From TrEMBL:
Name listed for the protein in its UniProt record: Adenine nucleotide alpha hydrolase
Protein source organism: Solidesulfovibrio aerotolerans
Gene3D superfamilies found in the cross-reference section: HUPs (3.40.50.620)
Active site residues according to the UniProt entry: C169 (nucleophile and sulfur donor)
GO MF term list: sulfurtransferase activity
InterPro entries documented for this protein: LarE, Ni-pincer_cofactor_biosynth, Rossmann-like_a/b/a_fold
Amino acid sequence: MPAVLVSLAPCVVAVSGGVDSLLLAVVAGRTLGQDVIMAHAAGPSVPPEDSARVGETAAAEGWNLRLVTAGEMDDPNYVNNPVDRCFYCKSNLYGVLGGLAATAFAGRAATVVSGANADDLSDYRPGMEAAKRFGVRHPMLEAGMAKADVRAVARELGLPFADIPASPCLSSRIFTGTPVTAARLAAVAAAEARIRRETGFSLVRCRVEGCAMRVELAPDVLADAALLAAVAPVIAALNRDIPNQCPDITGVSLDPRGYQRGRAFTRT
């Protein structure tokens, strides 16, 4: 990966706050020095803990960090939440980062790079098409790294985020076809944070379909009567409080099916 980064320098790294982009940013910062800028878009769809993690890592590593506004919430193609929502999200982001890359290095052409890895090729990723259109490069993918390699390198470097759970954007909790709004995203963030805080569960997804929010938990939680009893009052409180925060959501309940990756995404 360092060799790929050197060949692409100077670079603007898109840092979301997950393990992939954080590792890329750390390696880029240590490899390229002044020839790299880290960019983080802290919009409504970014989990607050991810933005906090970016800030903490930037301080620890001494990054040149730029906070940007991607503007996806002003794009009706994104807000309407079609099956290719991620294409519009990334198009907005990469458009902004492309502008930064064009001006940040005193006339030197810079490359926008992302934390995509080889595992991302096994799934439907419309954001990758946006990256292709905007000329974004993927150093870890080009170095042949998969997700397991990313975590292994992060552990080898002693980075504190090596084993953090997957952290997709909050819009991934909104079912395809249900509009993405700031109020829905804030409700999802608040509900997930409260469940984690009051139960200690690490795997929590609060999905919104229409006016309903359903809480997905790990299968081992659903199989344990004591754990279910512990989370029941939290969900009852959310059922009371979330509709006050976001009137578009009229109820919160436990999904008896448990966690399933990508359940809110409906590809037709």
